[in-house]
Design brief:
Tetracycline Repressor, domain 2, single chain, disordered C terminus, 216 residues
C-alpha cells in the first residue's frame, strides 16, 4: 500500500470519526460545544479538526447535509410499502425515531437556515409525502383531512422525546401508537378546526431561529 493511499484512508477515517463524535457531543452539550473537546473525543489534534472543517459552521453544514442524505436513504422503504397506510406508518415511525435519536438536529437546522436561507433541500420531499398521503387516503385508511404537514409536525413531536435522552427511547413507541391511531380514518372523528399549513411555510418555520411573536 502506498503512503498516499494510506494517508487518504487515515483522512477518511478521521473525517468519519469527527462527524460521529460531533453528533454525540452536540447531542450532549449543544452545537456550540468546544471543538477542542471534539478533537479529544475523536482522538485527534485540534489541527486535524480544522483541516477537515475550517470552522464550526462547515461542520454543522456537513452534519445537516448528511442528515438530508439519510432521509433519502429512508425513502425507498417508506415509499415502497405494500399499502399507503403502511407508508404512513413507516414515515412517522422511521422519521420520529430518527429525530428522537438525534436531539441536536433542530439546532443544526436553525443554524443552517441562519447561514444560508436559500439552502432548502427539504422542499424536495413535499411531492413524495403528498403522494403517500394521497395514496393512503384513496385506500380509505388515512383521515381525509390530514396533510403532509400534519405528518411532519407529528414527526417533530415524537422526535422531541429525544430531549429526555436514551433513558426514554425504549418507551417512545407508546406515543407512536397513540399518534397512528389518531391518523386512522374511522367514523366519529373530530373535524380539523382549521385548514393545514402550507408545506413551504412549515419547512421554513421548522428551520427558523425560534418562534416569532404573533402580529399585534
Amino acid at each position: 500500500m502506498t503512503s498516499s493511499v494510506s494517508s487518504r484512508r487515515d483522512a477518511r477515517r478521521n473525517h468519519e470519526s469527527l462527524l460521529r463524535e460531533a453528533r454525540r457531543l452536540f447531542a450532549e452539550r449543544g452545537i456550540d460545544a468546544p471543538l477542542d473537546e471534539l478533537a479529544a473525543r475523536a482522538g485527534v489534534g485540534a489541527g486535524t479538526v480544522y483541516r477537515h472543517f475550517p470552522n464550526r459552521d462547515a461542520l454543522i453544514r456537513e452534519i445537516y447535509d448528511t442528515a438530508v442524505a439519510e432521509l433519502h436513504d429512508l425513502a425507498p422503504e417508506i415509499l415502497g410499502a405494500e399499502t399507503g397506510w403502511r407508508s404512513v406508518e413507516l414515515y412517522v415511525e422511521r422519521l420520529g425515531g430518527w429525530v428522537a435519536d438525534s436531539p441536536y438536529l433542530p439546532a443544526v437546522m436553525r443554524r443552517v437556515a441562519e447561514l444560508d436561507p436559500t439552502h432548502r433541500p427539504g422542499i424536495e420531499f413535499e411531492p413524495l409525502v403528498d403522494g403517500l398521503v394521497a395514496r393512503a387516503q384513496a385506500e380509505g385508511a388515512l383521515r381525509a383531512d390530514v396533510t403532509a404537514v400534519d405528518l411532519g409536525i407529528l414527526v417533530d413531536m415524537l422526535g422531541s422525546l429525544g430531549q429526555y435522552g436514551g433513558e426514554y427511547l425504549p418507551f417512545w413507541r407508546r406515543q407512536l401508537t397513540v399518534v397512528l391511531d389518531g391518523l386512522r380514518a374511522r367514523p366519529g372523528t373530530t373535524p380539523m378546526p382549521t385548514p393545514g399549513q402550507d408545506f413551504a411555510a412549515f419547512h421554513d418555520m421548522s428551520h427558523a431561529k425560534g418562534p416569532k411573536p404573533a402580529p399585534g
